[in-house]
Design brief:
- This protein is mainly alpha-helical.
- It is built from three helices and no strands.
- The protein has two domains: about 50 residues; about 30 residues.
- Helix 1 crosses helix 2.
Length: about 80
């Protein structure tokens, strides 16, 4: 198992070495993910100052939208790698 994971890591590193744009896209995606995470944390902190039922409603609706997006988006952008 360890050798398989090491082989996969080497393949990933070779893919980044071959294509500079792939590396740039991965870095931009990681930065975008960090911004989304920061926004979610800020939103959850802001919800801590609201009434409990509103915080629960927003958290449940946000989670439901996230799950729905996880199901629907791959169907819409199928084949785009």
């Amino acid at each position: 198992m360890v050798t398989h994971l090491l082989r996969l890591r080497r393949l990933l590193a070779n893919g980044f070495r071959r294509s500079t744009w792939t590396l740039i896209s991965a870095v931009i995606g990681a930065i975008g993910g960090l911004f989304i995470l920061a926004g979610l944390v800020a939103g959850m902190i802001a919800l801590s100052f609201v009434e409990t039922r509103w915080a629960w409603a927003v958290a449940v609706l946000g989670g439901a939208l996230a799950v729905l997006g996880r199901v629907v988006v791959p169907l819409l952008v199928r084949g785009m790698d």
